[in-house]
Design goal:
351 residues, 7-stranded mixed beta sheet, two-stranded antiparallel sheet, 16% strand
Length: 351
Protein backbone atom coordinates (compact mmCIF):
# COMPACT_ATOMS: atom_id res chain seq x y z
CA UNK A 1 0.00 0.00 0.00
CA UNK A 2 1.36 3.39 -1.03
CA UNK A 3 0.50 6.25 1.30
CA UNK A 4 0.68 9.87 0.21
CA UNK A 5 2.45 11.53 3.12
CA UNK A 6 0.86 14.94 2.61
CA UNK A 7 -2.64 13.46 2.45
CA UNK A 8 -1.89 11.41 5.54
CA UNK A 9 -0.76 14.47 7.48
CA UNK A 10 -3.84 16.38 6.33
CA UNK A 11 -5.95 13.58 7.75
CA UNK A 12 -3.94 13.50 10.99
CA UNK A 13 -4.45 17.23 11.45
CA UNK A 14 -8.19 16.75 10.94
CA UNK A 15 -8.20 13.87 13.43
CA UNK A 16 -6.30 15.89 16.04
CA UNK A 17 -8.72 18.77 15.63
CA UNK A 18 -11.70 16.47 16.01
CA UNK A 19 -10.21 14.77 19.06
CA UNK A 20 -9.60 18.10 20.74
CA UNK A 21 -13.14 19.22 19.94
CA UNK A 22 -14.63 15.99 21.25
CA UNK A 23 -12.84 16.26 24.60
CA UNK A 24 -13.45 20.01 24.80
CA UNK A 25 -17.23 19.49 24.58
CA UNK A 26 -17.33 18.52 28.23
CA UNK A 27 -15.29 21.57 29.19
CA UNK A 28 -17.71 23.87 27.38
CA UNK A 29 -20.62 22.41 29.32
CA UNK A 30 -18.60 22.78 32.56
CA UNK A 31 -17.90 26.40 31.69
CA UNK A 32 -21.60 27.02 31.27
CA UNK A 33 -22.79 25.14 34.34
CA UNK A 34 -20.20 26.61 36.69
CA UNK A 35 -20.68 30.14 35.39
CA UNK A 36 -17.09 30.42 34.22
CA UNK A 37 -17.93 32.08 30.92
CA UNK A 38 -20.37 34.49 32.53
CA UNK A 39 -17.82 35.48 35.19
CA UNK A 40 -15.03 35.90 32.67
CA UNK A 41 -17.28 38.14 30.57
CA UNK A 42 -17.24 40.67 33.41
CA UNK A 43 -13.51 41.26 32.93
CA UNK A 44 -10.13 39.68 32.27
CA UNK A 45 -8.85 37.47 35.07
CA UNK A 46 -6.01 35.34 36.31
CA UNK A 47 -7.05 31.73 36.98
CA UNK A 48 -7.20 32.30 40.73
CA UNK A 49 -9.29 35.44 40.22
CA UNK A 50 -11.81 33.60 38.05
CA UNK A 51 -11.89 30.78 40.59
CA UNK A 52 -12.67 33.28 43.33
CA UNK A 53 -15.47 34.83 41.27
CA UNK A 54 -17.10 31.45 40.71
CA UNK A 55 -16.34 29.55 43.91
CA UNK A 56 -14.27 26.95 42.07
CA UNK A 57 -10.83 25.39 42.53
CA UNK A 58 -7.99 27.49 41.03
CA UNK A 59 -5.92 24.59 39.68
CA UNK A 60 -8.86 23.14 37.77
CA UNK A 61 -9.81 26.57 36.45
CA UNK A 62 -6.22 27.16 35.32
CA UNK A 63 -6.19 23.99 33.22
CA UNK A 64 -9.68 24.72 31.90
CA UNK A 65 -8.63 28.21 30.80
CA UNK A 66 -5.53 26.90 29.03
CA UNK A 67 -7.57 24.40 27.06
CA UNK A 68 -10.21 27.00 26.24
CA UNK A 69 -7.54 29.40 24.98
CA UNK A 70 -5.97 26.67 22.85
CA UNK A 71 -9.36 26.02 21.26
CA UNK A 72 -10.11 29.68 20.57
CA UNK A 73 -12.98 29.95 23.04
CA UNK A 74 -11.04 32.22 25.42
CA UNK A 75 -8.29 34.80 24.84
CA UNK A 76 -4.91 34.68 26.62
CA UNK A 77 -2.54 37.60 27.20
CA UNK A 78 1.00 36.27 27.80
CA UNK A 79 2.11 39.71 29.02
CA UNK A 80 0.12 39.49 32.25
CA UNK A 81 -1.19 35.89 32.26
CA UNK A 82 -4.81 36.98 32.18
CA UNK A 83 -7.63 35.40 30.22
CA UNK A 84 -10.62 37.16 28.73
CA UNK A 85 -13.54 36.86 26.32
CA UNK A 86 -14.01 38.89 23.18
CA UNK A 87 -17.42 40.44 22.60
CA UNK A 88 -18.13 37.74 20.03
CA UNK A 89 -17.13 34.89 22.34
CA UNK A 90 -19.24 36.29 25.15
CA UNK A 91 -22.16 36.71 22.75
CA UNK A 92 -22.13 33.02 21.82
CA UNK A 93 -21.19 31.54 25.21
CA UNK A 94 -23.01 33.45 27.93
CA UNK A 95 -26.62 34.16 26.92
CA UNK A 96 -28.94 31.11 26.75
CA UNK A 97 -31.70 33.35 25.41
CA UNK A 98 -29.60 34.93 22.68
CA UNK A 99 -29.63 34.09 18.96
CA UNK A 100 -26.52 31.90 19.32
CA UNK A 101 -25.75 29.74 22.34
CA UNK A 102 -22.95 27.22 21.85
CA UNK A 103 -23.09 25.43 25.25
CA UNK A 104 -26.60 24.13 24.53
CA UNK A 105 -25.36 22.34 21.42
CA UNK A 106 -22.55 20.67 23.35
CA UNK A 107 -24.95 19.67 26.13
CA UNK A 108 -27.07 17.92 23.50
CA UNK A 109 -24.02 16.21 22.04
CA UNK A 110 -22.78 14.90 25.39
CA UNK A 111 -26.26 13.68 26.28
CA UNK A 112 -26.52 11.81 22.99
CA UNK A 113 -23.14 10.14 23.49
CA UNK A 114 -24.28 8.65 26.79
CA UNK A 115 -26.35 6.21 24.72
CA UNK A 116 -23.23 4.93 22.96
CA UNK A 117 -23.65 1.26 23.95
CA UNK A 118 -27.33 1.22 23.02
CA UNK A 119 -26.69 2.95 19.70
CA UNK A 120 -24.01 0.37 18.89
CA UNK A 121 -26.52 -2.38 19.60
CA UNK A 122 -29.08 -0.65 17.38
CA UNK A 123 -26.54 -0.57 14.55
CA UNK A 124 -26.24 -4.35 14.81
CA UNK A 125 -29.92 -5.17 15.26
CA UNK A 126 -31.72 -2.40 13.39
CA UNK A 127 -33.91 -1.74 16.44
CA UNK A 128 -34.91 1.75 17.51
CA UNK A 129 -34.08 3.85 20.54
CA UNK A 130 -36.91 6.02 21.82
CA UNK A 131 -36.51 9.72 22.54
CA UNK A 132 -37.67 9.25 26.12
CA UNK A 133 -34.97 6.67 26.85
CA UNK A 134 -32.15 9.16 26.30
CA UNK A 135 -30.31 11.06 29.02
CA UNK A 136 -32.06 14.20 30.27
CA UNK A 137 -29.26 16.30 28.78
CA UNK A 138 -30.62 15.31 25.36
CA UNK A 139 -34.04 16.76 26.14
CA UNK A 140 -32.71 19.92 27.82
CA UNK A 141 -29.85 20.33 25.35
CA UNK A 142 -32.17 19.99 22.38
CA UNK A 143 -34.20 22.95 23.56
CA UNK A 144 -31.09 24.99 24.30
CA UNK A 145 -29.69 24.07 20.86
CA UNK A 146 -32.78 25.04 18.83
CA UNK A 147 -34.32 27.82 20.91
CA UNK A 148 -31.76 30.51 19.94
CA UNK A 149 -32.64 30.02 16.27
CA UNK A 150 -36.34 30.20 17.03
CA UNK A 151 -35.81 33.33 19.13
CA UNK A 152 -33.89 35.00 16.33
CA UNK A 153 -36.09 34.03 13.36
CA UNK A 154 -39.54 32.69 14.25
CA UNK A 155 -41.38 35.94 15.00
CA UNK A 156 -39.24 38.27 12.90
CA UNK A 157 -38.92 36.19 9.72
CA UNK A 158 -40.62 32.81 9.57
CA UNK A 159 -44.19 33.66 10.50
CA UNK A 160 -44.20 36.83 8.34
CA UNK A 161 -43.12 34.68 5.37
CA UNK A 162 -46.36 32.67 5.54
CA UNK A 163 -49.13 33.81 3.25
CA UNK A 164 -51.54 36.08 5.14
CA UNK A 165 -50.98 34.57 8.58
CA UNK A 166 -49.86 37.64 10.54
CA UNK A 167 -53.16 39.56 10.45
CA UNK A 168 -55.00 36.40 11.47
CA UNK A 169 -52.63 35.80 14.39
CA UNK A 170 -53.24 39.36 15.48
CA UNK A 171 -57.02 39.00 15.25
CA UNK A 172 -56.99 35.71 17.15
CA UNK A 173 -56.80 32.17 15.79
CA UNK A 174 -56.22 28.65 17.08
CA UNK A 175 -52.70 27.29 16.73
CA UNK A 176 -51.32 23.80 17.36
CA UNK A 177 -47.58 23.29 17.84
CA UNK A 178 -46.94 19.59 17.17
CA UNK A 179 -43.77 17.99 18.52
CA UNK A 180 -43.35 20.98 20.81
CA UNK A 181 -40.78 19.50 23.19
CA UNK A 182 -40.27 21.87 26.13
CA UNK A 183 -42.53 24.42 24.48
CA UNK A 184 -39.95 27.02 23.43
CA UNK A 185 -41.59 27.68 20.07
CA UNK A 186 -45.11 27.61 21.55
CA UNK A 187 -44.24 30.16 24.23
CA UNK A 188 -42.51 32.48 21.76
CA UNK A 189 -45.57 32.56 19.50
CA UNK A 190 -47.99 32.99 22.39
CA UNK A 191 -46.01 35.91 23.78
CA UNK A 192 -45.96 37.62 20.39
CA UNK A 193 -49.66 37.09 19.63
CA UNK A 194 -51.72 37.41 22.81
CA UNK A 195 -54.99 37.37 20.88
CA UNK A 196 -54.52 33.80 19.67
CA UNK A 197 -54.70 30.52 21.57
CA UNK A 198 -52.01 27.85 21.43
CA UNK A 199 -51.86 24.13 22.19
CA UNK A 200 -48.60 22.21 22.16
CA UNK A 201 -48.47 18.45 21.61
CA UNK A 202 -45.61 16.05 22.20
CA UNK A 203 -45.45 12.30 22.79
CA UNK A 204 -42.79 12.71 25.51
CA UNK A 205 -44.67 13.24 28.77
CA UNK A 206 -41.71 14.68 30.67
CA UNK A 207 -41.27 17.34 28.00
CA UNK A 208 -44.94 18.25 28.22
CA UNK A 209 -44.60 18.70 31.99
CA UNK A 210 -41.62 20.99 31.42
CA UNK A 211 -43.52 22.93 28.74
CA UNK A 212 -46.39 23.56 31.14
CA UNK A 213 -43.94 24.96 33.66
CA UNK A 214 -42.36 27.21 31.05
CA UNK A 215 -45.75 28.57 30.02
CA UNK A 216 -46.74 29.16 33.63
CA UNK A 217 -43.46 30.95 34.36
CA UNK A 218 -44.13 33.17 31.34
CA UNK A 219 -47.57 34.09 32.66
CA UNK A 220 -49.42 32.28 29.88
CA UNK A 221 -51.73 30.10 31.97
CA UNK A 222 -55.19 29.89 30.45
CA UNK A 223 -54.10 30.80 26.93
CA UNK A 224 -51.52 28.13 26.27
CA UNK A 225 -52.10 24.43 26.89
CA UNK A 226 -49.98 21.34 26.45
CA UNK A 227 -51.05 17.75 25.95
CA UNK A 228 -49.14 14.49 25.67
CA UNK A 229 -50.02 13.12 22.25
CA UNK A 230 -48.27 11.97 19.10
CA UNK A 231 -48.40 13.81 15.79
CA UNK A 232 -50.46 10.97 14.37
CA UNK A 233 -53.07 11.14 17.11
CA UNK A 234 -53.35 14.70 18.40
CA UNK A 235 -56.88 16.04 18.36
CA UNK A 236 -58.72 19.30 18.73
CA UNK A 237 -59.17 21.95 16.14
CA UNK A 238 -59.96 22.96 13.59
CA UNK A 239 -56.75 24.96 13.68
CA UNK A 240 -55.89 27.91 11.47
CA UNK A 241 -52.17 27.27 11.89
CA UNK A 242 -50.28 24.10 12.75
CA UNK A 243 -46.53 24.13 13.24
CA UNK A 244 -43.85 21.44 13.48
CA UNK A 245 -40.36 22.54 14.47
CA UNK A 246 -37.47 20.19 13.67
CA UNK A 247 -39.78 17.25 14.39
CA UNK A 248 -41.24 15.81 11.18
CA UNK A 249 -38.10 13.85 10.31
CA UNK A 250 -38.12 12.27 13.79
CA UNK A 251 -41.51 10.59 13.28
CA UNK A 252 -41.90 6.91 12.62
CA UNK A 253 -44.90 7.61 10.38
CA UNK A 254 -44.63 11.18 9.08
CA UNK A 255 -47.23 10.46 6.40
CA UNK A 256 -49.85 9.58 9.01
CA UNK A 257 -48.82 12.69 10.91
CA UNK A 258 -49.22 14.82 7.78
CA UNK A 259 -52.66 13.33 7.14
CA UNK A 260 -53.70 14.09 10.71
CA UNK A 261 -52.44 17.65 10.35
CA UNK A 262 -54.47 17.98 7.15
CA UNK A 263 -57.61 16.74 8.88
CA UNK A 264 -57.17 19.20 11.77
CA UNK A 265 -56.73 22.33 9.66
CA UNK A 266 -59.44 24.76 8.62
CA UNK A 267 -60.13 24.96 4.88
CA UNK A 268 -57.77 27.91 4.51
CA UNK A 269 -55.36 26.79 7.22
CA UNK A 270 -51.58 26.69 7.06
CA UNK A 271 -49.03 24.10 8.11
CA UNK A 272 -45.60 25.58 8.81
CA UNK A 273 -42.88 22.93 8.66
CA UNK A 274 -39.44 23.84 10.01
CA UNK A 275 -36.75 21.27 9.26
CA UNK A 276 -32.94 21.15 9.40
CA UNK A 277 -31.32 22.81 6.40
CA UNK A 278 -30.37 20.18 3.83
CA UNK A 279 -29.41 19.94 0.18
CA UNK A 280 -31.04 17.65 -2.33
CA UNK A 281 -28.25 15.07 -2.44
CA UNK A 282 -25.76 13.52 -0.06
CA UNK A 283 -22.98 15.38 -1.89
CA UNK A 284 -24.78 18.67 -1.20
CA UNK A 285 -24.66 17.94 2.54
CA UNK A 286 -20.97 17.09 2.82
CA UNK A 287 -20.15 20.24 4.75
CA UNK A 288 -19.84 21.24 8.45
CA UNK A 289 -23.59 21.76 8.93
CA UNK A 290 -24.39 18.47 7.24
CA UNK A 291 -21.82 16.72 9.41
CA UNK A 292 -23.46 18.03 12.57
CA UNK A 293 -26.92 16.96 11.46
CA UNK A 294 -25.90 13.54 10.11
CA UNK A 295 -24.04 12.84 13.36
CA UNK A 296 -26.96 13.82 15.58
CA UNK A 297 -29.33 11.97 13.26
CA UNK A 298 -27.50 8.65 13.63
CA UNK A 299 -27.70 8.90 17.43
CA UNK A 300 -31.12 10.50 17.89
CA UNK A 301 -33.34 10.97 14.84
CA UNK A 302 -33.08 7.65 12.99
CA UNK A 303 -33.15 5.52 16.19
CA UNK A 304 -36.05 7.58 17.52
CA UNK A 305 -38.08 7.11 14.35
CA UNK A 306 -37.35 3.38 14.20
CA UNK A 307 -38.56 3.00 17.79
CA UNK A 308 -42.04 4.09 16.64
CA UNK A 309 -44.66 2.39 14.54
CA UNK A 310 -44.62 3.20 10.85
CA UNK A 311 -41.25 2.07 9.51
CA UNK A 312 -40.07 5.50 8.35
CA UNK A 313 -36.72 7.10 9.22
CA UNK A 314 -36.26 10.23 7.14
CA UNK A 315 -33.23 11.44 9.08
CA UNK A 316 -32.25 15.03 9.78
CA UNK A 317 -30.93 15.60 6.24
CA UNK A 318 -33.94 14.32 4.32
CA UNK A 319 -34.12 17.44 2.18
CA UNK A 320 -36.98 19.27 0.52
CA UNK A 321 -38.23 16.78 -2.06
CA UNK A 322 -39.05 13.90 0.33
CA UNK A 323 -40.98 16.37 2.49
CA UNK A 324 -42.80 17.71 -0.55
CA UNK A 325 -43.77 14.19 -1.61
CA UNK A 326 -45.22 13.12 1.73
CA UNK A 327 -47.06 16.44 2.16
CA UNK A 328 -48.58 16.05 -1.29
CA UNK A 329 -49.54 12.43 -0.63
CA UNK A 330 -51.23 13.57 2.58
CA UNK A 331 -53.60 15.76 0.56
CA UNK A 332 -51.98 19.19 0.53
CA UNK A 333 -52.10 20.95 -2.82
CA UNK A 334 -49.68 23.81 -2.19
CA UNK A 335 -46.15 23.53 -0.88
CA UNK A 336 -43.25 25.97 -0.98
CA UNK A 337 -40.10 26.95 0.87
CA UNK A 338 -40.69 30.37 2.40
CA UNK A 339 -37.54 31.03 4.43
CA UNK A 340 -34.18 29.60 5.34
CA UNK A 341 -31.21 30.07 7.61
CA UNK A 342 -27.85 28.25 7.64
CA UNK A 343 -29.48 25.71 9.99
CA UNK A 344 -33.15 25.54 8.99
CA UNK A 345 -35.50 25.46 6.02
CA UNK A 346 -39.06 26.67 6.51
CA UNK A 347 -41.92 25.31 4.38
CA UNK A 348 -45.55 26.28 3.98
CA UNK A 349 -48.19 23.65 3.15
CA UNK A 350 -51.80 24.55 2.36
CA UNK A 351 -54.85 22.35 1.68
Amino acid sequence: MTVNEQKLMDFVHRFVGDLGAAVAAGHIVIGDRLGLYQALATGAALPEELAERTGTAPRYVEEWLRGQAAGGYVEYDPADGRYSLTEEQAFALTDPNGPIFAPGAFQLALGALRAQDRVERAFRTGEGLSWGSHDEDVHAGCERFFRPGYSAHLIAEWLPALDGILPRLGDGIRVADVGCGHGASTVLMAQAYPGSSFTGYDCHTASIEQARKRASDAGLDGRVGFEASSAQDFGGGPYDLITTFDALHDMGDPLAAARNVRSRLTGDGTWMIVEPAAGETVADNLNPVGRVYYSFSAYLCVPGALAQEGGWSLGAQAGEEPIRRLVTEAGFTRFRRVAQTPFNHVYEARP
